[in-house]
Amino acid sequence: MPEKPNWRTSSYTSQDTCVEVADNNLHTVMVRDTKDRGRGVVCVLPTAWAAFVRYAKQQQ
User: Fold this and answer.
1) Which residues contact 52 (CB under 8 A, 6 or more apart)?
2) pLDDT in tens, 13-29
């Protein structure tokens, strides 16, 4: 049975433009819009998510 997503809010966004990330599954990272959770979820491989986070940190 798959683990239930452990959603957490990104610390890099403001309250009105937040995304939530669930990265407690070894095989996929899930991302969704905090303001519209029912709209859908983007699923990516953990390696792709790690690359995105590294890139985003370099842009600050």
Assistant:
1) 44
2) 666 678 899 999 999 99
Among 16, 22, 60, 14, which residue's Cα sits nearest to residue 44? 22
What is the rounded distance in angstroms from the CA atom of residue 58 to the CA atom of residue 50? 13
Q: What pairs with residue 18 in β-bridges?
A: none
The predicted model scores a pTM of: 0.81
Q: Cβ(7)–Cβ(25) under 8 Å?
A: no
Q: Exposure pattern of 26-35 as b/e (b: 16+ CB <10 Å)?
A: eebbbbbeee
